[in-house]
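2024-03-11 09:14:02 INFO worker-7 job=invfold-0412 stage=load source=structure_tokens
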């Protein structure tokens, strides 16, 4: 069974990190270093490696995430609600 891959520029990389993880880590990195939800997964090191080499996609990804289904975003394991993910994505967009 193949995995779902986001169908936009850099979508395969975002799929590797996870949309909610990306927003959570980016929020930690650029806005609030006390936000630690991103650290709840065991694969943080791999995800950070992808994050570090994909900054050219960040703005586009944030725009895509704002249009994602709340039901899908709510499935994350970071204890973040879709509304929180989208709020953080909106704040992050102001940085770009």
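2024-03-11 09:14:09 INFO worker-7 stage=emit residues=96
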């Amino acid at each position: 069974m193949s995995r779902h891959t986001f169908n936009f520029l850099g979508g395969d990389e975002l799929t590797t990190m996870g949309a909610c993880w990306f927003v959570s880590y980016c929020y930690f990195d650029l806005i609030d270093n006390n936000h630690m939800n991103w650290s709840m997964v065991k694969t943080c090191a791999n995800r950070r490696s992808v994050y570090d080499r994909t900054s050219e996609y960040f703005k586009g990804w944030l725009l895509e995430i704002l249009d994602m289904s709340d039901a899908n975003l709510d499935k994350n394991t970071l204890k973040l609600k879709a509304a929180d993910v989208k709020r953080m994505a909106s704040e992050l967009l102001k940085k770009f």
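2024-03-11 09:14:09 INFO worker-7 stage=report msg="The chain has a mean pLDDT of 94."
2024-03-11 09:14:10 INFO worker-7 job finished
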